[in-house]
Amino acid sequence: MATKSGNLKPVYIVIGVLVIAGLAAWTFASFRTSSSEQVAATYSTTVSGSVVTAGKAAPTTVDIYEDFLCPICGNFEARDGGAITKAINDGKIQVRYHPVAILNRATNPPGYSLRAGNAAVCSADAGFFAAYHTKLFAEQPSEGSAGLTDQELIAKGQEVGAPATFAQCVTSGKHAKAISAETQRAGKDTSLRAEGSKSFGTPTVVVNGKRADISDNQWLDNVTQQ
Amino acid sequence: MRTSTGPSPRVLDALGTVVRLGLAAVWLVSGAIKASDPLQTHAAVQAYRVLPRSLVGVVAGGLPWFELALGLLLVLGVGTRLVAVLSGLLLLVFIAGVTQAWARGLAIDCGCFGGGGEVGADQTSYGTELLRDSGFMVLAVWLMIRPSTLLALDGVLARGGGPLLSGEGA
Description:
The complex is a heterodimer of chains A (about 230) and B (about 170).
Chain A: H1 9-28, E1 45-48, E2 51-54, E3 60-66, H2 71-89, E4 93-99, H3 112-125, H4 129-138, H5 150-159, H6 165-171, H7 176-188, E5 204-207, E6 210-211, H8 219-224
Parallel strand pairs in A: 3-4
Antiparallel strand pairs in A: 1-2, 2-4, 3-5, 5-6
Helix pairs in contact in A: 2-4, 3-4, 3-5, 5-6
Chain B: H1 9-36, H2 38-47, H3 53-76, H4 80-103, E1 108-109, E2 117-118, H5 126-145, H6 153-159
Antiparallel strand pairs in B: 1-2
């Protein structure tokens, strides 16, 4: 290993280690926007309050708390959305989606989180929740932007098959109250908080009543392969 | 390297070793935290609002491993000067990122050691973050100017298998 040729060797080692790091990044890249396979939902949904239940009763119940403006929620959906849809289709899990509005102040004008959550529950009323949910995250506005207007939310719905009743549900804010109430409830529920955290954040995923660690990209596999 | 009036090379080598291992710890800790929570890291990179969506994923995926690699190389003491230059460049990128966020009036956490993303306007700490990065920059600059340290593989490579405490790296 050690020879007198010395001086150039460190450079090769540095390059070698950096290349290995690059390969590691490539291998472990658990998040690539395009990696989540597109899966068409075949499940149906029911609405209770502001909670959208997707799929039939299954051995595992997964609660997903999300804010349509939250970037990590968008990343989570991009990474795991396809796999979650497939698991619901296959009857392995039942998912209760809890749209919450914790980032109302992060748009200008404020309130996109609440209006988007309302529109998502409206889409469940009208029977096209899965496609709309995917679309809202795929075309997510960024924090600090104006968000989307009700008209834009309606237009996006129409692109994935919204019936005429959808617009009225969106503009009237039919489910806004229920979403605000659910947001409050979630904020007070200490079982939804990350270990050591003093506050509730999104996305929060709960598997059979126990908070799941979604930074582990195997979390869903661990659930469905039991 | 020094005239007889300055501190002895031996003392400077020892100090340099502390600097090298300090900078190594910075990269290893920040890299490990970032690698263990890819979603958070992705959000942190995104929050700077500099990169297009497609590049955010590449940077967020590669950055933690690049930091870990720099940390490992510094622990080993291989190519210390080159690694110090790379460290300095990366720190410059971080400093530029935080500065532009501050100047544009974004309200974000730097995500330097995990965390990151948008925060309340009253919760930013750009000044502290820049000061900290500047401190790390001092470590990197030391090693660029004087990469010779103790307990470094550089010394072994240069001496053809001489004692590890030779202090004649790079």
